[in-house]
Every structure is written in C-alpha cells, then in structure tokens.
Amino acid sequence: MRGQPYRDRVVELYRRDLDLTLLREQLRMTPAQRLEKLARFASFAATLRAAGQRTRTRQRPGGQG
C-alpha cells in the first residue's frame, strides 16, 4: 500500500497546539539541567502551596492572624 502515510487524527489535533519553542528549549538542555529546572519548579510550587495554606488558615473563623 503506497501513498500518504497514516496520520492519526487525534495526534494531529494535539500537534496543532504544540509549542515547539518550549520543546526545543528543553531539548537543548542536558538531562541534569532538566532535572534541576524540575527541582526548582517543585520548590516554587511547594512555596505557593504553603502560602495558600497560611492564607486559608488565617481566613477561617477562629484561625490565627
């Protein structure tokens, strides 16, 4: 069977929204650099989570603050 290669419609739908600049940026980094970036993001997310928890605690009736 010759002609057009098989293309999955679902994959094509996702591909149109794919930001190749972000993908290329990641691929320029070494695996160690990618892990370091992930660790920094995880730390940032934990900081945000803790700040949100402190805010929720202060807003509860009987909360401290």
Outline the structure in words.
This protein is mostly helical. The chain has helices at residues 9-15, 20-28, 31-59. The radius of gyration is 22 Å and the shape is elongated. The protein starts with 8 loop residues before the first helix and ends in a 6-residue tail after the last helix. The relative contact order is 0.06. The model has no long low-confidence stretch (mean pLDDT 89).
Name a few traits of the molecule:
mainly alpha; 65 residues; 0% strand
Q: Overall mean pLDDT score?
A: 89
Radius of gyration: 22 Å
* Strand and helix order: HHH
Structural class: mainly alpha
What proportion of the residues is helical, as a percent range?
Answer: 55-70%
Q: Give the uncertain stretches in residue-range form.
A: none
Q: How many distinct beta strands?
A: 0
> Helical segment tally?
3
The end-to-end distance, rounded to whole angstroms, is: 72 Å
Topology:
Blueprint: H1 9-15, H2 20-28, H3 31-59
Give a quick summary of the entry:
With 65 residues, the protein is mostly helical. The chain contains three helices and no strands. The longest helix is centred in the last third of the chain and has 29 residues.
